[in-house]
Amino acid sequence: MNTMLRKSVLGIAGLAFAGGLAAGPLHHADPATTATTGGSPVAVAVQADKPGVDKAKLIPHGTQGSQSHIDLNNEQVGNAKAIIKATKKAGMDERAAVIAIGTSLQESKLENLGHLGDANDHDSLGLFQQRPTSGWGTPEQITDPEYSTMAYLKGLKQVDGWQDMPLTQAAQTVQVSAYPDAYAQWETQAADLVAQHWNS
How many domains does the chain fold into? Predict the structure, then answer.
């Protein structure tokens, strides 16, 4: 994806960069029944009741606040699958994958972002908007989905009690975002993606 197209994707997704990390769209809807895409409410059905997926592991604390939803293209779904694969490789469970995907939805809308020129927030790159100058790795490493996910999960493992935290608290402890509550809005969609693809 070229730089101009990335800028266009970011503009459409409603991303705003500040404080070293990306802030997501501010569309809100009833978290129990709807999500938003393009400003219109649509039905949400977390597929956590699929065989082999333990709903209690996906959203053990319930969702916090209104939930957002975006339509994903094949590349974005592929990146969600890459996060799930890396989570399994790290020996972590479905909940870790939900937290990682929710974080990536907030930071990049599951786009593996390269340098965005003037739209870049410092030197943030990849699925999690990790910064080479903050020690996350080289630009090449950070834009590798497996590497960036493993680096994110390494940070998550260092958070005492992450398993017992709401998604937004666990994500914020790793990411240190200027928008600490913004991760919460992606929990339903993240759980849906994990439910769909964990056993695929």
Answer: 1
